[in-house]
Design goal:
DUF8199; HYC_CC_PP; three-stranded antiparallel sheet; 3 strands; 138 residues; alpha+beta
Length: 138
């Protein structure tokens, strides 16, 4: 589960970096106020009205200006990707590193040590030393 989540976030961050550095251009072709074509990264195709108006001759010069419009907008990507050095000096970095490792060490599960003598039987007593020496607890 942890590896799957790690892979998902890695791919998401890579796609986010890719999408933020690419410049996006969207072009629209409008004919009489209606969107006829939308294109991403390429030129939008016209609706053919210009070819039809050119057949009419000089009378259509006024109509040409108001009939079709091309709109384009570009979202510029980020061009200056650079690593920024930390503003912290060495002693501050050392303190932060030691503090985070000590703090994260509090949450590590301590594994119980295996007791090795649990599986061995006790030694066989030949003589009871307490009775032999007459040592009794009162």
């Amino acid at each position: 589960m942890k590896n799957l989540l790690h892979s998902f976030f890695s791919i998401t961050m890579a796609l986010l970096l890719l999408l933020s550095t690419v410049s996006w251009t969207v072009e629209k072709h409008l004919c009489m106020g209606r969107v006829m074509d939308v294109a991403l990264f390429t030129h939008a195709e016209d609706c053919g009205m210009k070819a039809g108006l050119s057949l009419l001759g000089d009378d259509a010069a006024e109509v040409k200006k108001t009939c079709c419009d091309d709109e384009a907008f570009t979202l510029q990507g980020q061009d200056d990707l650079s690593n920024h050095k930390s503003d912290l000096d060495y002693s501050q970095q050392l303190f932060l590193y030691s503090f985070t490792t000590a703090y994260l060490g509090l949450f590590v599960d301590s594994a119980e040590k295996e007791i090795l003598h649990n599986f061995y039987p006790p030694p066989i007593l030949i003589k009871d030393l307490n009775i032999l020496n007459q040592v009794f607890l009162i």
